[in-house]
Amino acid sequence: MKPPACVLLGVDSSTQSTKAVFVDASTGEVLAQGRAPHTVEGVAGARESDPEMWWQALRSAVAAGLGVLARHGAGPDSVAGLAVAGQQHGLVVLGRDGRPLRPALLWNDTRAAPQAAALAGALGGPAMWSARTGSVPVASFTAAKCLWLRRDDPGTAARCAAVRLPHDFLTERLCGEAVTDPGDASGTGWYDTRLGAYDPEVLDLIGLHPGLLPAVAPAGGSRVGALTRAAGEFLGLPPGIPIAAGTGDNMAAAVGLGLGASGLLGHPVLSLGTSGTAFTVTAARPRTAGLPQVAGFAATDGCHLPLACTLNCTLAVETMSRLLGLDREDTAPGGEVVLLPYLDGERTPDLPGAAGLLTGLRHTSTPRQLLGAAYEGAVFTLLRALDDVLLSCGLDPGDPGTAALPLLLVGGGAAGPAWRDTVRRLSGRPLVLPGRTEPVALGAAALAAGATGCDPVAVARSWGTGAATELPAVERDTETWERIGSVLADARDLLAERRPADPRPGRRDLPRPPRP
Q1: Domain segments of the chain: what residues?
Q2: Is 249 annotated as catalytic?
C-alpha cells in the first residue's frame, strides 16, 4: 500500500464531541479519524461547556486519528493543512492570559431570550436587523449572550480581554492569531453581511469594543497562520502546518456537500442532529425581512447561506424513546397523538421558554405512536423552517416545482430509517442521501486545502462528496401535517406564556443607546 503523499486534517468541534478526520488530499478518502466527547452542563435553559475541554478533546481526537493513520504508512509529517469547524454562536470570553474566564455559553443556551427581544426592538426593529446583519437576534446569537453576561456576570464582563466563537478559540490556540471567518462571524448578530465587516452601531449598542474581537479573514478558506511550536507539541504534530480560517459547522457542512459558487447552488438541505437545520447556498443575498426565524448567514466562499434552526431534533426523539423504554426504530405513525417536542424551548418557532406539549391521547394510544408523534413533531417543525428558508430565496413552498425539489438529508438522523420515512411522509419530496458521512469534518478538511491556495468547494466536489443515493417521493401525509399545524396554532399563546420572565425588570438590557 502506497502511503498518501499529502493529508489534510479537518476538525469538527460540535456540541457533543470533537471529531478529527485525516483525509487524502488527492482522493478525499478518509484515512483515519478520532473522536473525543464533550461535557455539556446546565439546567433551566443554561447550556455551558469549558473551552479548555474542547482543546483537550482536540488532542485526544488527533492522537486517536494519528494512531490509525500510521497503518497507512503515514505520520504527522504528512499533514499539509488543518482547519477547524465549530458549533456556531457560542460565547467564549478570555482574560489577558488567553484563558477562558468562565464556561462558554453554547448556542442552545436560552437564558438570553430577554436580551434578544430587547435587541430585536432596537435600531429600527426586526426589518432593520434583517437589512444590516441578515438576521434578527434570537437567544442563540452571541450578541444576546454578551448582553446577558454584562447583566448576570458583570465581574467576568469587566475582566474580559477578548471575545471569541468556539472555532475562533481553537484556531487561535493552533496558530496564535486572533481571526475568524465571514461565515461564523455572520452568526454573532454584530456582523454586517452587506458590507462584510463588523457593525459599529451594533457593537456600541451591546457595549462591545471592536478591539476585543478577532480579525475577519477573507472568504474562501484562506490561510491565517501556521501551527505554533507549543500547539504542535501539545497535539503531536510538527509546527508550521498551514492553518486555514475555518468556519461554523453549518458553513463547513455546505462545503463538505459541495455547495457553493463552484459547486451546487439552491439545493435545499435538512440536517438531522441534536438540533435540526434547514439551509441552502445561494449567490444572491436572501431576503429575510418578515422572516425573523431565517438567519441570513454568509457562506465561506462569498455566497450566502440562509438557514433556519430548530433546537429539538434527534435529542428530543432519543429522550422520548428512553422515557418510553423503546428502541428508536420501534415506532409507528402518531395517529391522533400530537407531540410538539420543544423540550429545550425552541428557536423556530421563537419559543425559548416553551416545554414539550402532548395532546390527542386516547385509551387506544400506544407507546409506539407516542414515539412516532415525537418524530412527526420534530420533522414538522424542521420542514416549516425549510419553507421560510425557501421564501427568503424568492421561492414559493406551495409551488409544485418548488414542492418537488429533492431534499439533501444529512446528519446523524439521516442514517435512521424512521427519520427518513417520516421526512418523506410529511414532505412528499424525494430524498438524496450523500454517500459520504461527516460533512462538517470533510468540509473542514476541504477548507484546510484552502490554506494551500485551493478552492475548498471545488476540492470537495473533486472528492465525490456529491455522490448519493436517491429515495423517491411518497404521497404526502397532509392529514398529519394539518393536525400538527392546528395544534401549534392553538397552543402558541400557551407556549409563549412559558417564556422565562426577566428576573430584574428594572435593569436595562441595552447598556447604552447607539451612536447618532
Answers
A1: 7-256, 269-440+466-497
A2: yes
